[in-house]
Design a protein that fits this description.
Length: 324
């Protein structure tokens, strides 16, 4: 039997506190103008003290369940993409499972930094298609504010906190126009450039959490090339060309990366969903947050083809083609 994995619902959850560029420039040697010009970011959300990645992921999960009109008891797998887990273990996925009151099914985390959501979607899709799961909560949730060096202006201005979720299901949404779901996924990694983007701590190496370190201009160069190539390959293997696709929902790293990739693929600006101005870079949460915005504001409609793409630490990168 051929099983499909349909997108049943989407959701998101953001912390209440907004930190604008203007506010940030009162404590960091930067300016609103510099941040907006170089990155397109105007503001970011910052989790409150005691508000953890699992709290944001739980909020996004509830929102996605409501959007899909599903009861939590129908969920048999939770996959959480995060690089900022609540604890070293247990996984943030099992913490969210407990918050949801679920005692059945399975839950685990995936660690692929900013590409985490594409990786998580790829695994969830494969598990549905091989019959291992029926209704999967795929969550991207991060509190990057906790691993930023707030004295390093080259990195701390770029990131924010948040969570997004999507429910993949073997059962199509009730909407009769629902598309065919995940058409193809494509994931890749190359550990050669670890020093360009990493966190300088961890349980085994330093017994500390560590802070994010990045050589931004180098990351930029690699990201643009790999992203354009992976979208072409992902579409091609599913039998499509880039110009068959209505919407592009990229990882929201930087408006200039989004534009450079769009230029390489000859995309129209209006086809590329951008939320970087108000979410900043929320790592694994950025794609589901942007997807949630563009579905709920009515841009992405049932039957539209949507390409997701991401690049992050590792390096890791990938793309996923959906028919919503
Ligand atoms: N405010 C003011 N000045 C700054 C700031 C800041 N926040 N940060 C750096 N500068 C200064 C630098 O010190 C440098 O000054 P100098 O010329 O006197 O030495 C100058 O601005 C230019 O610095 P660059 O690093 O060359 O600036 P660049 O144009 O490359 O922009 C940026 C930096 C925004 C980080 C860019 O390289 C970028 O976006 N790279 C991609 C990084 C990224 O998005 N990574 C995430 C992808 S993977 C993931 O999501 C984890």
């Amino acid at each position: 039997m051929n099983l499909n994995s349909y997108i049943r619902g989407v959701g998101s959850h953001l912390p209440a506190r907004v930190l604008t560029n203007e506010q940030l420039s009162q404590t960091v040697d930067t300016s609103d103008e510099w941040i907006r010009e170089r990155t397109g970011i105007n503001q970011r959300y910052i989790a409150a003290e005691g508000q953890n990645t699992s709290d944001l992921g739980y909020g996004a999960a509830l929102d996605a369940l409501a959007n899909a009109k599903m009861d939590v008891s129908e969920i048999d797998l939770i996959v959480v993409a995060t690089s900022t887990p609540d604890l070293t273990f247990p996984s943030t996925a099992t913490i969210i499972q407990e918050k949801l009151g679920l005692r059945t099914g399975a839950a685990f985390d995936i660690q692929a930094v900013c590409s985490g959501f594409v990786y998580a979607l790829s695994v969830a899709d494969a598990m549905i298609k091989n019959g291992s799961a029926e209704n999967v909560l795929v969550i991207g949730a991060e509190t990057f504010s906790r691993i930023l060096d707030w004295n390093d202006r080259t990195t701390c201005v770029l990131f924010g906190d948040g969570a997004g979720a999507l429910i993949l299901s073997t059962t199509p949404a009730k909407n009769k126009n629902a598309g065919r779901g995940v058409l193809n996924t494509f994931i890749r990694s190359n550990g050669q450039h670890k020093e360009l983007l990493y966190v300088d701590g961890g349980p085994s190496a330093t017994q500390t959490v560590g802070k994010l370190r990045m050589q931004g201009n180098q990351v930029f160069r690699h990201a643009v090339k790999e992203l354009a190539d992976s979208m072409k390959e992902c579409a091609g293997k599913a039998g499509y060309e880039i110009n068959d696709i209505e919407w592009f929902v990229p990882h929201q790293a930087n408006q200039r990366i989004l534009e450079a990739v769009a230029k390489r693929l000859d995309l129209r600006r209006a086809q590329v969903v951008s939320t970087v101005a108000f979410h900043a870079n929320t790592s694994a949460a950025s794609i589901p947050l942007a997807l949630d915005v563009a579905i709920k504001d009515g841009r992405i409609k049932r039957g539209h083809k949507v390409m997701l793409e991401a690049f992050g630490g590792g390096f890791t990168w990938g793309a996923a083609l959906l028919e919503y």
